[in-house]
Amino acid sequence: MTLPEEVEDASFFDSKIRPLIPQISSVLVGAVLAFAATGVVIWTSGKNPLAAFQGIAQGSLGTAFVFALTLDRMTPILLTALATIVSFRTSIWNVGQEGQLYIGALFATWTALSLPGAPWYLVMPAATVAGIIGGFVWSGIAGLLYIFFQADAVIATIMLNYVALLTVDLAITGPIQDPTSLGNAISKQIPLQANLPIVLPGTPLHAGFLIAMIMPILVYVLMSRTTLGYSIRAMGHNTEASRYAGIRVRTTLLAVFGISGALCGLAGAIEVQGFQYRLLLGLSPGYGSMGIIASLLGGLQPFGAVFASLFTAALLNGTQNTAISIGVSTFLVSVLQGITIIAVLALSSQRLRFFKGRR
Amino acid sequence: MADLFVNVFVIGLLSGALDLSVPLIFGSIGETFAQRSGIMNLALNGMMIMGALLGFVGVYFTGNVWFGVLCGMMGGIALAALFAFLCISLELNQAIVGVLLSAFAVGVIGFSMVVIFGSNFVPGKASFGPSPIPLLAGIPVIGPILFNRNVFVYIALIAVVVAYYIIYHTSWGLMVKSLGANPKAAHSLGINVNRIRWYATLFDGFMAGLAGAYVVLALVPTFTNTAINAQGWISVALVYFGSWNPVTAAVGALIFTGTQSGILALQTQGIVIPTDVLAMMPYLLVIAMYIVVGRKKRDVPTQLTVPFRRE
What we know:
The structure holds two protein chains of two kinds. Chain A is mostly helical. In chain A, 72% of the residues lie in helices and 0% in strands. In chain B, 50% of the residues are buried. The chains are: A mainly alpha, B mainly alpha. At the A-B interface, helix 7, helix 8, helix 13 and helix 15 of A face helix 3, helix 4, helix 10 and helix 12 of B.
């Protein structure tokens, strides 16, 4: 029971940090449990779990080069996580991040390849903007299906994911195929002027990382300081009540699908312009799903997503290293991420009392 | 000429339609029961994937196809139990958990294949062949189409009729329907809402596991990481298109696979379509179906995705 004297002057700790404690503790406990469970799984498959975890740490954070690589990986994951946050907070289960990323990558590649002689200050931003538009459009298709045809958001976006991948395959085995690649399904390399510059010499860390790090701030401002953000949060609680209260539901939905797609398209463009310098089917090792997981681990908050995407990227790079050095399957990352998010979600359940403190 | 056309094109089309529809029919029957009880199971694809893995493993180590089917069912039920625990007992968001478990299943099978077999490409040991029905298979034209199919095609068609009967003509079906419409009323009558929802979800997993086992043991018939592809998602869509009626869902499945099969069969008539475009067919079809039938008003089970708590 709070006495009147106790209500005044809530400290910074009490108002900002304390509410986060249940969330953060469930993430930490969940991660520990998940690692323990995965350790058991690794052990039963005949490999040494401690060596595996050491390999994960070394492969993701061991050297400056490797850490730069981790930050590179974090870039698309953070962007897809932010995209997921915008959608999920509206209670729109848009899971089309992967497809939107690829279409963004396709638009960016196509634009860059169409402007071979252009100077860098034209083609580099043009390709990136094209990528953003591509993702926006692809997500917009799902949004139109949702709004005008009552399509299920999950199913429509998943269907479009498959179509996106096949469209990219169609392009890279056809119009933009690399003629020197011995029939492999990869596109021509984009012109050098379109590449994003390296920001830390001697490492693969590229400017896309900086672009991505600005986005959480923008999303935070969107969600907490704009009318659209207010509409999003209201609709996330109760769509019908929001409509009754005068919120423009249809406009908000279109904006949500659009912004979400734009962020994923940006991720796709960055991957092409900063990391691969061409379009290929392995461009994204599942950044879409990882973004969803990272957004949930971060409590659907933009800044939480930053930490969660770093963690996820570290797992991705680390498990690749472990796969090579110890021979555990590369699917380990999916298993590890999956167990982590399930454990964290389970611990955050409203039905469990111990993390909720005073009820 | 006409004879050749009939033999190759029509028979190929209709046989293919029936064979391909089985996983969709099994999946949509299970999902119909789950959604009628108020559970939106978006982990169906993952449950089919688990069914495929365990079905394949079961046959690989025993050589017995029916044991494989049983293992497949167990695989589906296992994931369904996890889903039910997270969504019914812990009341987590069903859409999020469903999507996550489906993605998780993909990782699990990839990992398991490497752990068990050392690689992802393992030839199968045994599979189901066609089971012709003695006299009827001899009827010209419709004989080979209808009566020379895999045994699971017959099982699927019978299952549709049985499911329809249960939902619309038994008190059991009425009970399940009431859970999706008004669980408080059902609770006041002494029905344990969450327990029945658990059963419905496990049944969904059972059917999905069966569908998955069918794909790798009878349809393809071998195990690949992408064998199931999106058939679970399509089944969920079919439940919606069919308005939670197993018969209309099955009809939808046949229209769906008929179109797919027809476009594939066009290849035999010399019409060449790029493989990527062919592969897009199912997904574009689902989108097209939303556009064509999506606007029709539907009686959505009102309590779909809403957890029930005994206050």
